[in-house]
Amino acid sequence: MSDSRPDADTWPIAAAMLPFLGTTTSGTPVQDAPGEVWGAALAEVADAGFTEVDLTDSWVRPGDLTPQRLDELAGAIRSAGLTAPAISAIRRSVIDPDSADDNLAYSHRTIDAGAALGCAVVSVGLHRPLLPEQQKAHWFWTVDGPRDSDDPETWSRAVSRLRELGDHAASVGVQLSLEMYEDTLLGSADSAVRLVTDIGSDAVGLNPDLGNLYRLHRPIEPFLDALAKCLPHSNYWHVKSYLRLEDFPSGTVLTAPAPMDSGSMNYRRAIKMALEAGYTGPFCVEHYGGDGLAVAARNRDYLRGLLRFDLSDAASPEVR
What's the CATH code of the domain at 27? Predict the structure, then answer.
């Protein structure tokens, strides 16, 4: 995390590119589409009131662009009046039994692309591609996906490879953030904190995307309890919320995406906790389903309002 805290009105709050498909209506991968296609999507983000964008690689993979096309992407970002504080590389686990080496190389390329684009953070995780049954489900998290082994050899490999990425990130002036996700070595607060501690690099922190855990149809650690453990180690934060309904006698759990101001996760308290812990990293607002960009914009405004109060003279002194 940076030593200086942004003010509420300039704190980077980026739109995830999750609502934008990776293929055009004609079936062309957006990766290979003309720069005008990128510019149109980024202009839509700006039209929703954003000044920052997270270059989620389900839309475009900056790490797989040629230098010329990377310059073209940078130009499209500038033309839209945006900056890109982060790239989120998803489902590219560096310990995936099927593609670990390819994913490690891709992560290195993504770090270099992040540096070229002026990003402060590259977010990576240990989650793997969705299984066929998950792809069929209306909400993919209602079907269990791949599960990491927690044997010493796998743990050591994760520590070594993520430290390698952290060293690379540090050498080009970028922070590496590790996204929390179920059934991985980053699948609980305790395991995530242990992993980042074992890596032991100032350039590597946590992305406490606890919405990924809160939405599960199974018992979970309370949101604020898990967040309290993670915040001292956090340098980037994907924020989103869910409605969570639990029928205690039967053990039934149901969840659905919800705006941050009306979901079951208490972000009013969470932001106070973050400021108390000294968090200074960027935010990325996410939402699944429906008009994800519109809900992300609503989340941004809600989040900026919380920051505005908590950083004001009216707030309790311990959060300033």
Answer: 3.20.20.150
**At a CB cut-off of 8 Å and minimum separation 6, what does 7 contact?**
311
Contact 260, 223 (CB under 8 A): no
The number of domains in the chain is 1
Estimate to the nearest angstrom the gap between the alpha carbon of 209 and the chain centroid: 6
| Local structure of 69: helix, strand or coil | helix
In sequence order, the β-bridge partners of residue 83 are: 52
pLDDT of the residue at 3: 55
Q: Please report whether residue 2 resides in a domain.
A: no
Range of the domain at 209: 13-319
Q: Is residue 4 part of a domain?
A: no
Given a contact cutoff of 8 angstroms between Cβ atoms, the answer to whether 208 and 230 are in contact is: yes
pLDDT averaged per 10 residues, the chain (length 320): 78 98 93 96 98 98 98 98 98 97 98 98 98 96 96 98 98 98 98 98 98 97 98 98 95 96 98 97 97 98 98 77
Using alpha carbons, list the distances in angstroms from residue 144 to 84, 220, 310. Answer: 32, 15, 38
Q: Please list, residue by residue across 76-92, b when 16 or more beta carbons sit within 10 angstroms of its beta carbon and e when fewer do.
A: bbeebebbbbbbbbbbb
Question: Rounded CA gap, 10 and 178, in Å?
Answer: 24
87 in a domain, yes or no?
A: yes
Per DSSP, the residues of 112-165 read HHHHHTT-SEEEEES--PPPHHHHHSSSGGGS-------SHHHHHHHHHHHHHH
Model pLDDT, residue 315: 82
| Helices then strands, each counted (H, E), the chain | 10, 10
Element (H, E) at 102: helix 100-116
Q: How far apart are CA 285 and CA 283, in angstroms?
A: 6
Residue 7 lies in a domain: no
Give pLDDT, residue 320: 62
